Amino acid sequence: MVMQAHIIELNNISYSYGSTQALSHVSMNVSQGVFGLLGPNGAGKTTLMKILMGFLKASAGHGTILGHTLSEDPRLFRQHIGYMPESDCLIPYTDAVNLTAYTGALAGMPWHEAIKRAHEVLYYVGLEDSRYRMVNTYSTGMKQRLKLATALVHDPKLLFLDEPTSGMDPSSRGEMLTLIKDIAKKAQMNIILSSHILADIEATCQQVYIMNRGELVTEKTVGEKALAIDARYRVRLQGDLDSIPDVMQSHLIPAEHAGHFQLKLDHSFDKNTFFKCLQDQGIQLREFIPKTETLANTFEAAIGENHEH
């Protein structure tokens, strides 16, 4: 076992389904906490999760998870992982208690302990009154809760959630997201949440990795509103704009309307330098508005750039 500073470290992971490239040179370092994989359907999120759990072997690259290399026997680390798949994985004509206990036993728990724990997690996810019903009679929202229970029963160190709100109505979806936040807070469990729903990522995750067409496009801290070093502003200038000095040219991007620009500031060209340049040229600053960098426009920009390439 190799001790690592990160719970997941990946270096140039690639994978193909025949002639279809599902993942291409994916590298990332994931620390403890709640992290999101965000991207459209077919972006490679589920394939990446299956590689991390040892269900698929990468065709190129290497990595570690929970201190184990991905080339090791996956049984060495899989017992410490909980997995809630997007697909319907429930065994029909089985009640929720026995199904949840069965998944605990598969993870190595003694049966009596697995049964006890099954009752606890089913109560936690809100299925205590339905725990003896056959799972094939469950609604979509109840099935999602049950899948979460089976992923939690053995108290894993790392929880993978693949589209956990899939098919749920707005009320049930909100309850599921609240459960995920509660698990992260009270159990202090590491969580990787895969979704194509931006709002689910914003509601639950600290950091997000944006994927598209098998590539890791960018990463971003959720809730990060403005760029600390590379600040951007919407500005409106009035005066002889042809006299704008060369030192400002690379920092001003013309907008749709005359006199409107996007201003990019950094350590070499800060606000004071910008204001002095305007004063020296007799140009009036009529509008100076910080441009916030939200997860939504980061996602739109990243996906758009990736499609162009």
Ends apart, CA distance between termini:
39 Å
CATH homologous superfamily designation of the largest domain: P-loop containing nucleotide triphosphate hydrolases
**pLDDT under 50 segments (min length 5)?**
225-229
Largest sheet: 6 strands, mixed
CATH topology assignment of the largest domain: Rossmann fold
So what's the CATH class of the largest domain? Alpha Beta
**The number of domains:** 2
Q: Topology as H/E string?
A: EEEHEEHEHHHEHEHEEEHEEHEH
Structural class, by secondary structure, is alpha/beta
Rg from alpha-carbon coordinates: 24 Å
Specify the helix fraction band: 25-40%
Shape: elongated
- Number of distinct helices: 10
> For this entry, what is the oligomeric state of its chains?
single chain
Please give the CATH architecture of the largest domain. 3-Layer(aba) Sandwich
- Estimate the mean pLDDT confidence: 88
